[in-house]
Structures are given as C-alpha cells and as structure tokens.
Amino acid sequence: MRKLLLTLAALLPLMAQKRPELNDGEMHGDAPYLLEDGWKPLMTGVDLAGWHGDSQTKNEWLTTTGVMWDRLLGPTRLRPVPGAVPGGSMLNGPTGRTVNLVSDVKHGDVELYLEFMVAKGSNSGVYLQGLYEVQVFDSWAADKPITSSDCGGIYHRWINEKGVGGSAPSVNMSRRPGEWQSFYILFRAPRFDANGRKSENAKFIRVVHNGITVQRDVEVDGPTRAAMNHPEAAQNPLMLQGDHGPVAYKNIYIRPLRPIIER
C-alpha cells in the first residue's frame, strides 16, 4: 500500500499539468488534436457513419485498416488492405472515382485537421462548407510554376467558362504519391447582415500543408469550381471530392475557430 501511495504521489504533478493552448496557426510536432483540447473527430474509425454521398449515384467510399501504394506495379492506384481491427482510413472505392463525400455535421468558423494520401497524378479537394476548395493534388516534383491547381492551393472560381481568382500555395510542400500528408486549416465563414445579405466573404486565415504555412488571410468571394449546389451560409457541411482519382483520408478533426495569437 505504501508503495502504491508513493507512486500516486509521484504521478499527481504530471496529472495536474495543463495541456498547451497553441492558437498561433502553426504546427507544433504532433497533430494538434493530440496536443490540445476541444477537437471533435469526424470519423468513427470503424465505418462511414457521419458521412453521406452528395448524389444518388452509388457511394463506393469504404473504410480500411491500411492503404497500399505500389511505386512499380500500380503507381496510379491505391488499394485497401484489411486488418484484424476496424479501418481508420476512408478510400474512394476500388477505381478512385465515386461520389463526393459530405459530412452530416455542419460547420461555421472552424479549425480543421486531416491527413490524406494520393496516387500518382491523382486529384481531390477539401471543400470547407462544401463550397470553398483547398486543392489536393499530386504536385510532387512539379517542374512548372505553382498555381491554384497545385496541392494546398485555394482553387479558382468558374465564371463564364473560365477560371477566375484562386490562390497558389506560397511553396510546394507536397510529398511523393503514396505518402500520408496533412492539412491544418483555419477558416472563417462568410458573414451576413440582418436581412440575410452577405456582408463579409469567407476567408482562409491559414492553410498549413505538411507543417508549413502555404496560405495566409485569403478571401474567397464565392464558391470555387465544382462546389456543392447550395447557397453560402453561416453553417454548411464539409465535402471531400471523390470523383477525380484515388485518394484516402484519415484523422479528420474539427473544433471552433479561436483568435490567432501572432508570435
């Protein structure tokens, strides 16, 4: 008993330590949901509960324990690998072309963290509120000037059959195909007056790609290309693009946006 009491006494200072509050829009080692309080998972780690397809077309998204990429025999494909425990990754079907996946949860001002993997040449997108896209793309070893179509870009709008606006990432932080990558996104939803008219545009306060800030204070004056068909609002769901090539997602977490403290 005395030994147990001594052990508990030694642990008490550790248990009393507060978790950090790192609201500076940067990464600090591990993923922010592991370091700070207030994060809510959007994946069950078992199935697709909490998500639905954006159309009546068959939804082929699936969950898997592992995601396999083969540099030599299948560089343009991702393959699910089952395991003894339920899968914590979502993959957009056997062909990499299926419906877009929409969260049941709606969000306004939000911090979003997620991890993704693409096959060679593949393409997807993370649509905040289903309307404003942060591009997911295989930009590994790109030898052309960076554009809003590269990974980490705020995608352009599509007006009168041409691309308008958009914001290229400040630096290409892409890893090679078949490797997990991360986005940490701080997003402010559009504002509306008492009559329902938009008074302020949506804004990407930060987009952090693989630990490096690639977007800072970028306004979007309307939905980007291939957005969901619903109006801008204070609250809307998250959408993951599923029809442009093999992509996998995991560790998707959100929490309410906090004011940034500049360091």
Characteristic terms for this protein:
2 helices; five-stranded antiparallel β-sheet; mainly beta; Jelly Rolls; eight-stranded antiparallel β-sheet; 263 residues; globular
Describe the fold and architecture.
With 263 residues, this protein is mainly beta. The protein has a domain of 173 residues: Sandwich (Jelly Rolls). The chain is 7% helix and 39% strand. It is built from two helices and 19 strands. The strands form five sheets. Strands 1, 3, 6, 8, 13, 16, 17 and 19 form an eight-stranded antiparallel β-sheet that branches. The protein has a five-stranded antiparallel β-sheet with strand order 2-7-18-9-10, with no helix packed on it. It has a two-stranded antiparallel ribbon with strand order 4-5. The mean pLDDT is 92.
CATH topology of the domain at 28-43 and 100-256: Jelly Rolls
Secondary structure class reads mainly beta
Give the C-alpha Rg: 20 Å
Give the CATH architecture of the domain at 28-43 and 100-256: Sandwich
Order of helices and strands: HHEEEEEEEEEEEEEEEEEEE
| Tertiary shape | globular
Low-confidence stretches: none
Q: Terminal Cα separation, in Å?
A: 48 Å
Question: How many strand elements?
Answer: 19
Count of runs of 4 or more consecutive helical residues: 2
Overall pLDDT level: 92
**What helical percentage do the residues reach?**
under 10%
Topology:
Blueprint: H1 2-16, H2 32-35, E1 40-41, E2 51-53, E3 62-64, E4 66-70, E5 74-81, E6 89-91, E7 101-107, E8 110-118, E9 123-128, E10 132-137, E11 157-159, E12 162-164, E13 181-188, E14 191-192, E15 198-200, E16 202-209, E17 212-220, E18 236-240, E19 247-256
Antiparallel strand pairs: 1-19, 2-7, 3-6, 4-5, 6-19, 7-18, 8-13, 8-19, 9-10, 9-18, 11-12, 13-16, 14-15, 16-17
